[in-house]
Write a structure and sequence with these properties.
mainly alpha; 2 strands; Arc Repressor Mutant, subunit A
Length: about 180
């Protein structure tokens, strides 16, 4: 569960099934009652219909928590971290970073760092498409050390410069308008 909408969907499905919860957070649901196998199956089916799934594998749950923290950091939080990402994740999840990194790589087939960078680049793309901020403002907002650093990372991950990516958007828009 990443978004508020996901939490609302889970709460709604729990309510429909007559289940009472105390917490719905970060990929976790705490219910007031122990669920029977029939209730678990019904909840799993209801969640799958909404595009969500019930997880009971501890590794997968931990990976989802890592993903959620990173997505919230990149997409919903403008504050710069006071510590580096590894320390932040370790503090939030009460595990050593090496433990978290090993499990994440094992389950996702990508490093935490690459997942984080991929989300930062997606956020840069989003901001470039909105065309409300300059590249300097985007670099500042996403806590890059410089515009050059952002541009180099963007080019490395997409094969395009930020300005070329931005121009492609404009060309597409012109083409669509001429139809």
């Amino acid at each position: 569960m990443v978004t508020i909408r996901c939490k609302m969907v889970v709460k709604s499905e729990l309510k429909k099934l007559g289940l009472h919860y105390t917490t719905v957070e970060l990929g976790e649901v705490e219910t007031m009652e122990d669920l029977s196998p029939v209730q678990l199956a019904a909840l799993d089916l209801a969640l799958r219909k909404t595009g969500l799934e019930l997880m009971d594998d501890q590794k997968s749950i931990l990976v989802e928590k890592i993903k959620t923290i990173i997505i919230e950091l990149v997409h919903y939080n403008d504050d710069q971290l006071k510590v580096n990402l590894s320390e932040y994740l370790s503090e939030k999840l009460n595990h050593s970073y090496s433990f978290l990194a090993n499990i994440f790589s094992e389950v996702k087939g990508i490093t935490i760092e690459n997942f984080f960078l991929a989300h930062k680049i997606e956020k840069v793309k989003e901001l470039l498409v909105y065309d409300e901020l300059s590249l300097t403002e985007i670099a500042f907002r996403l806590h890059y050390s410089s515009v050059s650093h952002l541009s180099n990372q963007f080019k490395k991950m997409t094969g395009l410069t930020p300005s070329h990516f931005k121009n492609l958007k404009h060309k597409r828009r012109i083409t669509l308008e001429s139809l």
